[in-house]
Structures are given as structure tokens and as C-alpha cells.
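User: Just a sanity check before I run the rest of the batch. Below are the C-alpha cells for the first item. I only need the designed sequence back.
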């Protein structure tokens, strides 16, 4: 199965991608996580991506597609859930070209719908576990009692000015992908509000593979 989770920052892509990956035994590829790891290791990709991410801007397409290609090549472009990629029309076109040259099933694109005011609330309360990468929300999805507060970090791009910038960037550069995927009949709209388990059930109901022809 090949899945793309599409939606604004804070829609719950990372939260749901982890659950989908576990339930369907898929590789979870998050370009955001890849860049954060590169920044942590202070490598060339990290140094290039850092200033864009901190300002809430998109990393240039060429670098993003290079990083995505490497990750997809590693798993032979099979059994994946993509979280945060593609996010521009050139990235979607690149992905279609890339997958067109590989064997495998069609792409399920899930459009996670959440209003901007909810996003601001979700992101300003988000915390990540520094070791496991687990995602929590101080108000809506609190960490278990055995998680030490000092192990929880706030992302630099979850500051209010950065959240606002990311939303503008999303509406300008990423939202047009909705049309791109809708026109090709690959987009499934999902209401991403409500308990995490309910959102997961809605996504799962869209992930039905066509019966194979004998
Ligand atoms: P990335 O890490 O992909 O960030 P994002 O897309 O902005 O999305 P987020 O991680 O902020 O949110 P999410 O949708 O995963 O929500 P989450 O599950 O955490 O990218 C970061 C940066 O890297 C980008 O800004 C860009 O600079 C760069 N980048 C990455 N990919 C790129 C690309 N392809 N092209 C160019 N640049 C790229 O949930 C959010 C909060 O809500 C959490 O606190 C969670 O606990 C809570 N929550 C989740 N679901 C629910 C629910 N149902 N109810 C209540 N709370 C919930």
C-alpha cells in the first residue's frame, strides 16, 4: 500500500502516520523528521534546510526531492506512508514520475481537514519526546505519567510567528495540491477533528485497495 497524508501543519499527519504505519506494516517517511534529524547531526542537508524550517518556509524542491528519493530508494518505493511530502506541485509531479518508473499499487492521498484556529491551538501546545519522537499535546493528548517533563521539547517552528507563517505557506503553496490529486481521482477527504482513534478509523475507511484481477 502507498499512502500520502496531506494537510496543513498540525492536521495530525505525524500522529496518524505512526498509527497507519503500525496497523498496515508500512514504512513511515516524514520529510520533516528527516530534516530535523539532519539538523541535529549538523550535516550538509541539515545546514541547508535549517534556516527555511526555522522561518516556517518550505525547503527548496530540489533538496526535498533528493532526500525523498534516497528514502524511497532505500525501501524500494514499497509499502509506505508519506507524511509531509509532497507539498508543492513540482514535488507531486516528481513523485508521480518517480513512482511511474516503479512497480506497485496506486497512491491513496488522504486530505486531512482542520480549520486554522484549531491548528494554532494544537501546535502551540505540541511537545515531542526528544528520544522517541512521540508526539503529545499538553491540552489535547497529554503524555503518560511516566514521561519526564525534561524529555519533552517544543519545536522551534511551533512558536506563534512561525505557526502563522507556515499556515500562509500552506495556503499559498501546498493547498493547490488538493486540486492536483482530486482531478486524478486519488484524493479522499477526511475530517481530522475529534479523538485521534476516530480520525484513524475515518482514514482507514478510505484505504481500500481495489480487488486484483485474476
Ligand atoms: P513537518 O514536520 O512535516 O511539519 P508540518 O507539515 O508543518 O506538520 P506538523 O508536523 O507541524 O503537524 P502534523 O500534521 O504532523 O501534526 P501532529 O501529528 O504533529 O515539516 C516541518 C518543516 O520542514 C516544514 O515547515 C518545512 O520547512 C520543512 N519541510 C518538510 N517537508 C517538506 C517538503 N515536502 N517540502 C518543503 N519543506 C518541507 O499533531 C499536531 C498536534 O496536534 C500534536 O500536539 C498532536 O498531539 C495534536 N493532535 C493530533 N491529532 C489530534 C486530534 N485528533 N485531536 C487533538 N489533538 C491532536
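Assistant: Here's the designed sequence for the first item:
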Amino acid at each position: 500500500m502507498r499512502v500520502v497524508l496531506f494537510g496543513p501543519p498540525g492536521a495530525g499527519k505525524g500522529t496518524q502516520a505512526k498509527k497507519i504505519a503500525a496497523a498496515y506494516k508500512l514504512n513511515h517517511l516524514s520529510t520533516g523528521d528527516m530534516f530535523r534529524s539532519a539538523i541535529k547531526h549538523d550535516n550538509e542537508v541539515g545546514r541547508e534546510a535549517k534556516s527555511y524550517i526555522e522561518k516556517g518556509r518550505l525547503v527548496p524542491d530540489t533538496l526535498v526531492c533528493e532526500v525523498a528519493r534516497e528514502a524511497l530508494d532505500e525501501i524500494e518505493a514499497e509499502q509506505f506512508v508519506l507524511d509531509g511530502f509532497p507539498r508543492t506541485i513540482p514535488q507531486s509531479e516528481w513523485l508521480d514520475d518517480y513512482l511511474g518508473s516503479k512497480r506497485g499499487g496506486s497512491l491513496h492521498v488522504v486530505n486531512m481537514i482542520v480549520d486554522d484556529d484549531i491548528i494554532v491551538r494544537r501546535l502551540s501546545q505540541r511537545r515531542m519526546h526528544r528520544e522517541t519522537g512521540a508526539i503529545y499535546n499538553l491540552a489535547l493528548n497529554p503524555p503518560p505519567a511516566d514521561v519526564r517533563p525534561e524529555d519533552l521539547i517544543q519545536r522551534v517552528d511551533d512558536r506563534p510567528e512561525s505557526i502563522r507563517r507556515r499556515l500562509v505557506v500552506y495556503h499559498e503553496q501546498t493547498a493547490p495540491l488538493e486540486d492536483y490529486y482530486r482531478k486524478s481521482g486519488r484524493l479522499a477527504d477526511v475530517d481530522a477533528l475529534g479523538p485521534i482513534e476516530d480520525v484513524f478509523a475515518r482514514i482507514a475507511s478510505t484505504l481500500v485497495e481495489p480487488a486484483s484481477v485474476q
